[in-house]
Amino acid sequence: MVTRADIGVIGGSGFYSLLDDAEEVELTTPYGPPSDVVTVGRIGSRSVAFIPRHGRDHRFPPHRIPYRANLWALRSLGVRQVLAPSAVGSLKAEYGPGTLVVPDQLVDRTSGRPQTYYDADGAVHVSFADPYCPSGRAVAVQTARSAGWETVDGGTLVVIEGPRFSTRAESQWFSANGWSIVGMTGFPEAILARELALCYTSVSLVTDHDAGVEAGEGVTHDEVLRFFAQNVQRMRTLIAQAVEALPEERTCPCPNALDGIKLPFELP
Ligand SMILES: [Zn+2]
Fold first, then answer.
1. What is the pLDDT of residue 218?
2. Residue 143 in 3-state DSSP?
């Protein structure tokens, strides 16, 4: 394969393109095709591969996204660092729409999604105590602050199964636990990245308050998409700036995620 990239971006709801004038690469993986053709191009001096998480026409709901194929495809192109923008609901009254959260923890409330590459030929247990790349997080936070975003460094992302939104009771429960934001796609994406020894950073844009956080009707998908569409250009700029600011050499723990573990197959 000739086309290569160092950095991967997985775009969320409303975020269907990143690179103009880029090469389109049709890929397949042992886990089927990724969500869409992968576009590979340059941002400054960095080579970047972009996948729209839901497909360009938003055909994959959160529980049907081919997460394993997406991460595998990125790794097979040479990608080692992944930025993952997404739309989230806020579980804290003080994080209003437009707030950017770079979480440092995750709670998995999904069910039934394939969440490992290693489901045959021996057990592979990777550490997931700290699910996100510390270098990627630092870059995302610093870049967002310099660009004037209301930015939260850290916090817990709850990933629900969807496609429905939370009930008021669920939302109040998440909130009472001190968790910060709620989304539907951050898992298993984060663990699959870790299983491939990739750096993974969630860049979460608050589009609304979740059901229990304030009175009212609760969130609708239309509201989420409308808000994200209004912010997508700003988000693209931020992601492009973060791509350029990511370190050339990885000094974080992520590359060593699989050290000492006997893998049942070779990674791409
Ligand atoms: Zn890392």
1. 67
2. helix
Span from the CA of 141 to the centroid of ligand 1 (angstroms): 15
* Cα 88 from Cα 246, distance rounded (Å): 23
Residues paired with 25 in a beta bridge? 38
Tell me the CA–centroid distance for residue 113 and ligand 1, in Å: 24
Q: Could you give the 3-state DSSP secondary structure of residue 13?
A: coil
Q: What's the confidence (pLDDT) of residue 102?
A: 98
Q: What length is written for the chain?
A: 268
Give the C-alpha separation, 58 to 75, whole Å. Answer: 23
Where in the sequence numbering do the catalytic residues fall?
Answer: 208, 210
CA 71, CA 81: separation in Å to the nearest integer?
Answer: 11
Q: Could you tell me the distance, in angstroms and rounded to a whole number, from the CA of residue 71 to the centre of ligand 1?
A: 15
Report residue 58 as tokens. 């938003």
Distance from residue 81's CA to the centre of ligand 1 (Å): 7
Coil vs helix vs strand at 89: strand
How do beta strands 105-109 and 156-160 pair?
A: parallel
| pLDDT at position 169 | 94
Q: Are 132 and 104 in contact (CB under 8 A)?
A: yes
Q: Check residue 163 and report its DSSP letter.
A: S
CA distances from 103 to 100, 106, 116, 188 (A): 9, 8, 22, 15
- Yes or no: say if 173 and 196 are a contact pair by the CB < 8 Å rule: no
**pTM of the complete model:** 0.95
Binned average pLDDT, 10 residues per bin, the chain of 268 residues: 88 80 92 96 94 93 97 98 95 94 98 95 93 98 97 98 94 96 98 98 92 68 79 92 97 97 93
Are 196 and 133 spatial neighbours (Cβ–Cβ below 8 Å)?
no
